[in-house]
Design goal:
16% strand; three-stranded antiparallel β-sheet; four-stranded antiparallel β-sheet; 194 residues; alpha+beta
Length: 194
């Protein structure tokens, strides 16, 4: 029903849907509908966090299709994923990703992070901490329209003004310049640094 490899396949699919002008959305909708059918008796919110994250990825694919190529079928699939995720602590992430002015809102807070959000201009990424999802930070990459899930122990100081977040795969580490005391405080509050 779910394995980690499937989760990694969702990222390029959603990126493709977000950027391609004429993808074959019929087969994607068919797969999404089939997955909803196969899991209709599974309580997603009671499941492993990995399963919930996988469903967020499926919702993101459905949501992208629904917003770019509106149809009753696409809207129904999107709503069914939202319904299945209702009550999950990750629903707050779905709501955030659904905001029309998400990137603009993050950019406005550059240099002045809020309690749960931080924008790193150098990386063009927004970082989000959800109160009900402890130990994890979500990084919204506005460069390639992806969302990364980062364990809060993956970071360490790489100098006085740089914070490095190590990725599980080599070559995907993030080096975050820290420009002021507010950004420094946000990192200390949300990451468990060495």
């Amino acid at each position: 029903m779910y394995d980690e490899k499937a989760l990694y396949l969702l990222e390029p699919l959603v990126r493709h849907l977000a950027k391609d002008d004429q993808p074959l959305i019929g087969p994607v909708l068919l797969v999404l509908e089939r997955y909803l059918h196969l899991t209709e008796n599974v309580e997603i919110n009671d499941g492993h966090m990995g399963m919930q994250i996988f469903f967020v990825g499926l919702w993101q694919a459905a949501s992208t299709i629904s917003s770019r190529w509106p149809s009753a079928r696409a809207q129904t699939v999107c709503e069914e994923f939202e319904e299945r995720l209702w009550g999950s602590p990750l629903m707050a992430l779905c709501e955030l990703l659904g905001e029309v002015s998400l990137e603009e809102d993050f950019r406005k807070m550059s240099g002045s992070p809020s309690d749960d959000r931080f924008f790193c201009e150098a990386l063009n990424m927004g970082f989000v901490s959800l109160s009900l999802v402890t130990d994890w930070i979500f990084a919204i990459d506005f460069n390639d329209l992806s969302v990364r899930m980062i364990h809060n122990t993956r970071g360490r100081w790489a100098g006085i003004l740089d914070y490095k977040i190590s990725a599980p795969k080599g070559g995907q580490d993030l080096l975050m310049p820290v420009r002021n005391v507010l950004e420094h405080h946000w990192i200390l509050t949300h990451f468990k640094s060495e």
